[in-house]
Amino acid sequence: MLLERLIDQFSICKVQDFSELHFHQTPMFVGYTHEEISIVCKSDSVPRHWIEREDGWTCIRICGKLDFSEIGIIARISAILASKNIGIFVVSTYNTDYFLIKTENFAQAAEALVQNGYHFTE
């Protein structure tokens, strides 16, 4: 399976409302429930009025479009990283999955994934 490390640094935030979100920015992920509005965005684009914020994330994207019948993709990757005590934050879209890993753990995570048959784009 081919993986791509996205260049930007990312932040995971909780925000009060949608007023400062720039939906044209990519990638941006929004989770909206009756309890909160959570976003993942580039660290240099975090809204000014955040409630909680966690910086220092690197994002890995699974390349290509995944079929809904493919089972266990997130489970396999998360198990590999969990065996190295590396925490993740996962976001799924219609086409694919994104794994956010603390930047200080990226080299170890990438090495573990490569050792388990995953490949990174150049």
TrEMBL record:
Lineage: Bacteria, Bacillati, Chloroflexota, Anaerolineae, Anaerolineales
Protein name: Protein containing ACT domain
Every CASTOR ACT domain range: 53-113
Highest taxon above the source species: Bacteria
Source organism per UniProt: Flexilinea flocculi
InterPro entries for the chain: ACT-like_dom_sf (IPR045865), CASTOR_ACT_dom (IPR027795), CASTOR_mTORC1 (IPR051719), UCP008459 (IPR016540)
Pfam families named among the record's database cross-references: ACT_7
